[in-house]
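[09:14] KT: can someone run the structure on this one? pasting the chain below
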Amino acid sequence: MTGRRWAGEPRPQGTAPAEPQHQTARAQTPPRNQASPPGTAWPGPASGHSPAPEADSLGPGLGADPLDRRRWPVDPWALRRIVAPRRAEPTGDPDGLKSTDGADRASGPDEADTANGPYATNGADQTDGPLAASLFALSNGYVGVRGDGDGDGARGPGHGTFVNGLHETFPIHHPEPAHGLAWCGQASQGVPDAAGFDLWLDQAPLAEAATLVWSQSELDFRRGATEQTALWRLPGGDQVLVRQRRLVSLVEAHLAVFDCAVTVLDGQHQVRLAARLEGDPTAVPPKTDPAVARAKTIVSKTSPATDSAAQGLSTVDPSRAEPTADHRKTAPVTSPATPEASPVDPRRAEPTGGGLEPCGHWRWLEAEAWAYRCRHSRQAVALGLTRSAVLEDDPVTAPPDRRPTDLPLAGDGSARASLTTGQSLHLTTTAAYHSFADPPLGATSLAVASPGQEPAELVRRCRHSLAQAGPPERLWREQAVWLERFWERADVRVETGGPDDALQQAIRWCLFQLAQASAQTEGLGVAAKGLTGSGYSGHRFWDTEIYLLPFLVYTDPGTARQLLRFRHAMLPSARRQARRLDLDGALFPWRTINGEEASAYYPAGTAQFHIDADIAFAACQYAAVSGDQAFLAGDGLDLLVETARMWLSLGFWQTRGDGLFHIHGVTGPDEYSALVNDNFYTNVMARFNLLQAAAAWERLTPGDPAAACGRLEPVDPSAACERLTPVAQAAARLGLTAAEAAAWRRAGEQMFIPWEAERGLHPQDADFLTHPRLDLAAVPPERRPLLLHYHPLVIYRHQVLKQADVVLALFLRGADFSPAQKRADFDYYNPLTTGDSTLSAVSQAVLAAEVGHQDLALELFAQALFLDLADRHHNSADGVHLASAAGVWSVLVNGFGGLRDHGLAPSLSPRLPAGWRGLEFRLALSGARVAVRVESESITLELVSGPTAELVVDGRPVRLDQGGPIRLARPAPEPPQP
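[09:31] RB: done, structure tokens below
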């Protein structure tokens, strides 16, 4: 394995990929754009894509390829989408409403659909347009830009571009108010979008002047950019090629580059190209008014904005008369006409009634900028832009030393030129977005921005970012280098024994989403859909800790630590939330942006107390795998202590029964069972949380008799922390004593874990097995998912799962259970699982591989792999499901690769599917990097960097050093279970 390139070999210089055949020879070989930086030359339409495979199978056990490869060509390093408009021909239909295949058309053959600017499809089938906007979205964790393809063409705030952490707030009005309910709604706030361009040919908009012949969108996983190519034909037969590229820098958090090139392939035409800014900047005052830019705090009359509210005391008294004014118009809900037509979908963004208001417009010689504030949250954001235009001659006929000609820009940012055959007009926009990084400290009013945050300061930062950006070519080069390093440490390769390009393409698309979501997230966290859309209102869930963090822990531990620090910064608000629920310690919000609980439906929201254990689990996993003991003695200990305190106050010892520690009134990961007693997942994870908190304290007090006996003297918190021992630091910071740690250990060791000996099963909760089973086979497809078509009380009283609750616990804490228990539990719960949650298939696949259900593991893996690419849950248009994308890595590495970290050292016990020839991945272990290749009869390990690394392989300890790769024979695989 020495010397192998994990990032893939670059295309040899001087070669051009094959291009599809078009109707004119000139369209086949358009002139290359000379202004492109080295290594980023624009290929022609549909370049490099593989032809549609003869067989539509993904490989043994993986089923049929769910994508139409005529429209979504196979390429292991890129995602492409081809759009070819349908053409109407004489059919006896005077209105031209029938296409040649008999499908209905919304417009005639020559009418323009300007929804997507220069990439309008002119009547083409756009049913997957909103989906494509998510699949081709670009992000770096701070700025996110959706791809083109939105059906309504709107790319203004909320539809095109997002900034991490920027959100609007609104009051949550409960029809039946009660103490402690969530009151501060939060939703990500889109920002003005600078990605688009407008094009005119001979004084007419492009879509009116010409007809689209063909177009393609491409997302390149190695360049980290999108490219859109469209060929247009004018009425006289002349053709024009339009190419647009986008890059959101993975290196510079605040920068993005958008450019567009128009090449005239025939004749001579007047071209006007303008950079478009969606969001109506013309409404911004032409001159900055400091008074307008000054922050103003808005306090909702219905929000708990008093000091008592800040302490977690509700100001709502449900025993009093309700106000008669209709204050619930923020999010009106109407009753569905039929049970199948519910208008409510909790997966989508909530209306805020807020939005952006302009604060000012600045213009300099080299740039201009706009500033805005969210009306309620008072958060500010600024956008700065620079533009440049060049005229490029035909590279075939122009002299070799001919350089592009700079063109002046009009006041509206447009460029004009008269182009002859082979000439191109190229317009580039560099954008800088800045917003204040407000810590997730919760809120006592709808305003969450800190006082004194002036939009003018953000404008200054935008100007500085643009001045430091340099030429766009530098950003393109840095992007390629960053991604080469990413693929070196994070790529996963499979060899199934057949054509693997389609499978590899989907795997790398998922991994690329994780790179985009986490590259620049320090202090900001990651939303469930990242910055690829507004789904789930941009909220952060437990998805980060249980699904995304494991990938980062083993590939990019520094970023994993940053995301854990984001949770640590949320401790003040989590402590207040615990007080509201009369609990000790800290209770982290189920869904949030600013640290305040944003889930209005507490049975499936706040009652998911396991969020605390999930965060503790992630902290322990990071510390154990990375070897970062300083984290475990600092931020990690804070998280463990405060969550352990919550569990100790939430649970109780049963004095008139088994004498064990029980936890009642909770909801586990399976949201189809709410407010239950002794949820298996919750108790298992809480046990781990309590025991790890006690162990962390004990590791700080070795050989200290006073601390071990609980006689540690009180410490003055005002003492300089650096002068104290780790034990004294913890005591000063947290008020921690050995007696408290001993109580955690006792609760953990005596935790009640549901078990029914007669059936040999772990019940999902104390009463789950007493409920009748729901006949899923009798539920028609149009009534799926269940949460959108059945009242919660109907679902709660049945044995039916939204996601694999018990199965997930068996995966995360597998060392606590026997193989026979895992197999019995999986076999019982798998048929009850609807898969209505996008998180379910990945954990089911991992455990299916472990217990021997190889065919089922492959089937579930394929479901997760194409969850977004094939839009299996019909909501990927709202954004990419990052947890599922991270789960794909888990299925490959934890499932088929058999990686576990339950012991002192990570272990590997691969379960390679029958017929697969190989699986390759890399792991970061305590400062070292290890390359792993799994084959059916052997496993090869190589220390790529670092002095040494230790693993356990098939039960045998292995120590790696710089001596080269080690090949270990594997025991004969057990026969697959039926």
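[09:33] KT: thanks! The first helix runs from residue 25 to 28.
[09:34] RB: yep, looked fine to me
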